[in-house]
Design goal:
The protein is of the alpha/beta class. It has helices at about 35-40, 55-65, 115-120, 140-155, 170-180, 195-210, 230-245, 260-270, 275-285; strands at about 10, 25, 45-50, 75, 100, 100-105, 120-125, 130, 160, 185-190, 220-225, 245-250. It folds into two domains: about 1-80, no CATH class; about 85-285, TIM Barrel (Alpha-Beta Barrel), CATH 3.20.20.70.
């Protein structure tokens, strides 16, 4: 086989998310008879079991055993193994349209494994995509951030900054560039009490460059359900997020086994559905 030819890799994911690839070589389950029939005349070089969450490891190990019957090398990896990421390859482990232009973060959030896994912040070669999943893109230089914006200008979809925009790092020039490419949605985060003042400041910066809070472009993940949290405290953070100018999305904390509390799951359902949240925000603004 020509060494310059790209490898054909089956990718297997223990769970499906919005970002999971949907091409013919991406799977989220054990191989079925129809899969064997379809792959019979396809030369497969490797099978990669990609694991994002540590609580999916038991399922990943089972999938590894079941896919090994194809007789080609099977490898397991991903964030769950605390492995630093390589250069980003569009469409390989994320659906086409998603891209990562930098990895790592210098923050020290107690619930986040990114700094330990990635070993600091670094920029990558910029690959096309319109949904930015960087760990903390605002840590990048003006040169890199501007280059990302230029890349977004040639995409077929309006950009989404899903990876999280750290409010305390936001500068007016960055907000202006995000506005210039008609950003479809961006996400800040309100994880701990000391995130609130920076969130308020970021809301003002975004408003000053022309973002409207009523458009719901400005969104914010609100961490709930961690040790010591209460429904009252969580709801206050959510309402404070709205007051800062952001549309809130409740993110439920999970332990290392992926377990959550049923009461917190019920609470989250009322604060993660956009229609329900929008109605609640409207009532809040009218009161």
């Amino acid at each position: 086989m020509d060494s310059k030819m790209p490898k054909k890799i089956i990718r297997v994911f223990p769970r499906r998310t919005k970002a999971t690839p949907d091409d013919e070589l991406a799977f989220t389950k054990a191989p079925a008879k129809e899969d064997f029939n379809r792959l019979a005349f396809t030369v497969i070089d490797e099978i990669h079991i990609s694991v994002a969450f540590s609580y999916d490891l038991p399922k990943a190990e089972e999938l590894c055993k079941k896919w090994s019957v194809l007789g080609v090398p099977v490898k397991m990896g991903g964030p769950a193994f605390n492995q630093p990421g390589d250069e980003f390859t569009p469409g390989l482990y994320l659906k086409k349209g998603y891209t990562i232009t930098s990895r790592g973060c210098h923050g020290g959030c107690w619930f986040c494994s990114v700094p330990q896994r990635e070993g600091g912040f670094r920029v990558l070669e910029i690959k096309d995509g319109w949904n930015i999943l960087d760990d903390n893109i605002l840590m990048s230089s003006q040169e890199h951030f501007t280059a990302v914006i230029e890349m977004l200008k040639r995409q077929p979809e309006r950009p989404i900054f899903s990876g999280g925009i750290e409010a305390r790092l936001l500068k007016p020039w960055q907000a202006e560039l995000m506005k210039s490419v008609k950003t479809q949605r961006l996400y800040c985060a309100y994880d701990t009490p000391d995130d609130y003042e920076p969130l308020v400041s970021a809301g003002k910066i975004f408003k000053d460059v022309g973002f409207s809070e009523k458009s719901n472009i400005l969104s914010c993940y609100v961490l709930i359900g961690y040790e010591g949290d209460t429904f009252e405290k969580a709801e206050k953070r959510i309402f404070d997020t709205v007051r800062a100018g952001f549309f809130p999305f409740a993110m439920l904390w999970k332990n290392e086994k992926g377990e959550t509390d049923e009461g917190w799951r019920r609470f989250q359902r009322g604060w993660c559905n956009p229609t329900i949240v929008g109605s609640r925000i409207k009532e809040m603004r009218l009161s």
